[in-house]
Amino acid sequence: MQFTPQRLDKVYRAMRREEIDALLVTRRQDVQYLTGYQYGGVNVPIGCLISEDHQPQLILPDKHELISSRESVMAKKRPFNETTSEGWSRSRGTAFWAQTTGILKELGLTSSMIGLQHDWLSVREFEKLKQALPEAGFKDFSPSLWKLRYIKDAAEIDAIRKAVNIGEIGVRTALEIVATGKSEEEVSLEIESAMRGVGGQQRGIRAAVLSGAQAHLPFAEPGASRISGDQLVVLDIIVSHSGYFGEVARTIHLGKPSDKQRKLFEYVSNAVRLLDKRLKPEAQIKDVAGKTLKKVGKSFPPDTIVQPLGNSIGLDLYEPPYIVPDVQQSLRAGMVFSIHPTGFAAGVGAVKIADVFLITEDGCENLTTLARETM
After folding, report:
1. For residues 191 and 237, is the Cβ–Cβ distance under 8 A?
2. Residue 92, helix vs strand vs coil
3. Spatial separation of the C-alpha atoms in residues 339 and 354, rounded to whole Å
4. Which of 170, 302, 306, 365 is the most buried (most CB within 10 A)?
């Protein structure tokens, strides 16, 4: 994915506001955002140092330097010699921190105010850093970095759009192969294979065909249970492209749905339509969520809809802000949201519909092209 230098300009402005001289980023997704370096391994100890007067410094194990040469990286690579025991632990090891503090000394930043990601730093690591840099000050930059990622640039939107397109292929595949008697797991694996074949990334793919009582849960996994003709079946598709996520979900019925099942489907469909109409710049998220929940109808109790109604999506599947009634924030052009209202009623089943929306200057664009009417 094309890296845009404007991201660094946004970071520099935020650093000046926060009175931070250097920023140490240790979360994989944020390293990609600021340098263009993409690596799918969760536990690989990578980081980057950002300072306005110097080129970004990408800190990575020497074993991964050759991998990074295949990518467009907007940073100076600073490899370190990683031991096997350090490489696959949750925390970054001694070699990582020795390289990091060495670079800070080299750049004359050892007495500076340094921004960190406290949510992605262990207590032990923080203590190591304070001991190595006794004259430095430290400040949590995590909230500011999330805010910088709210607005997606053109390259990010293009990657999300491609992920959604692949997700739609997954749903179309599901509509062709899901049948009574097949197991959830069997058809889910077949859908994932189809998406990998058209460019879906291994790390980001999740096809979940769900037909049981747990189908409404966010992290429910397909199992060995057989799909029957009297159940609602959720097709929940997640895929990533160039590190960016897309989500598409539809709900089907392989027989004749009962009146209650049909009403639940219409209930959730109405929630999506209401959200679609309210997604526009300057709209307050609390109003978007609150008014939708009030007007969705009275066919079912208010707690039928599983919250959140949606969330920002990008390098993470779930990013703030979330579409819930207590969020005090307005929508802005360039934000991208997965809108995924899910309804559940005991004895009836679960319905989920998910589309990805881009907030535009005059409203919103649905990046998903599939019809929602699947029953």
Report:
1. yes
2. coil
3. 5
4. 170
